[in-house]
Structure formats: C-alpha cells, structure tokens
Design a protein that fits this description.
single chain; 8 strands; about 210 residues; 4-stranded antiparallel sheet
C-alpha cells in the first residue's frame, strides 16, 4: 500500500473536519429549563409565623406546548438554614436546617406562581428569625425530573459551587431531624391566603 502524499492528507483532514462540524451542527442545543425561580421573599406574618415565598415562572417551550401552555407537576423544595439559639455566640453559619416541598398540579406560562413555606411562631421567636434570610436553596423538579441549579436558586452570598454543595450536604444530612416544622402553605393557617397560589398535589389523604 502506497503512503498518502501531502495533498491526499490535506483532503482526508478536510473531509474529517467537515464531518465533525456537521455532527456538531446537527446536535441540538440543551433545552431551556421549563420552570425557573423568579424571586424569593421573606416576611413575618400574622400570629408570629414567618413566611418564605418562592415565585416561579413557567416558560414557553416544548414541554409547555405539549401541555397546552401548562407545565405539569412542578415541585419546589425549599431548604433553609438558620443560626439557632443553640449556636455559639457570634456564629456566622447556620447550625439548624429545615426542608419542605410542595408540588403544583400545573403552572401556566402566563404569570407567576407562588409557593409559600412557613416557620411556626415558637421557632421564629426562639431563634429570632427576622428579615431576609442568608442561607437557603431552592430545588425545582418537573414531572419528577430534577432541574439544574441556577443563580436564582440561592442567595447572592452563595458565591462558590463548593459552598452550595456544602450547604446542600448539611441539609441532606441534618434537615430530617426537623421534618414537619417548616410547612407548605396548605398545611398552615394560611392555606387559603395569598395570590397566584397554584393547586397542589396532596397525598396525605390517600395513605
């Protein structure tokens, strides 16, 4: 077999490069997330409770088009860390962690939907929970599939991936000790209050 001359080599590489370019051109770009966090707000409410409101926006796209501009089964998990009464004086990182989830039947792509979560008055008073919170993480899923985290899912002081993963690890390991303290709106005295509240999938009555 004769070795390829320079002209033949150039032709081979040109054909290879063209094939690679064509393959990448045919690879679809990653689809945009069908739902994203718009805002996270905190406020004290009646009776000494403390509210965290997560506003989410469903976005037009293939998922919404297939469901008549609705995104089905949108789940929000709210993870919160607080510096509790047990923390050493002057502590700057949370030592107590809470987690709660709520899953909407569907969200329309026009407007926003509000998922609200509440700490009860005893915890609010004991740990002096007031004002905007500095340690939280919002996790979204659609139809049981988790969505990637974005900058809107965490506060601005979560500046590194390592810090975010460290916080997520602490919540995963410690929040179960406080299950049932942070509550979704439909399990609180505020079940019928607020605007833009979606209908939620309820499972506690079917067990």
């Amino acid at each position: 077999m004769k070795p390829l001359n320079c002209r033949a080599l150039v032709l081979v590489f040109a054909v290879f490069a063209s094939a690679v370019s064509s393959a990448f051109a045919q690879t679809p770009a990653p689809a945009a997330a069908p739902v994203e966090v718009a805002t996270v707000k905190f406020r004290p409410v009646a009776g000494g409770w403390f509210e965290a409101e997560v506003e989410v926006q469903a976005k037009p796209g293939p998922v919404a088009v297939a469901n008549r501009n609705f995104v089905n089964r949108v789940k929000v998990t709210f993870n919160l860390g607080v510096i509790s009464v047990k923390a050493p004086q002057g502590a700057t990182l949370p030592d107590t962690f809470y987690r709660a989830s709520a899953e909407a039947v569907a969200i329309e792509t026009t407007g926003r939907a509000s998922f609200r979560f509440y700490l009860p008055p005893e915890i609010v008073k004991r740990d002096q929970v007031t004002g905007p919170q500095r340690f939280y993480l919002v996790e979204l899923s659609v139809g049981g599939q988790a969505l990637p985290l974005t900058k809107n899912d965490v506060p601005t002081n979560f500046t590194t991936a390592a810090f975010i993963e460290g916080f997520r690890s602490k919540v995963s390991g410690e929040a179960s000790a406080n299950d049932g303290i942070l509550l979704p709106q439909y399990l609180t005295p505020f079940a019928s209050g607020g605007t833009n509240t979606p209908s939620f999938i309820r499972t506690e009555g079917t067990r």
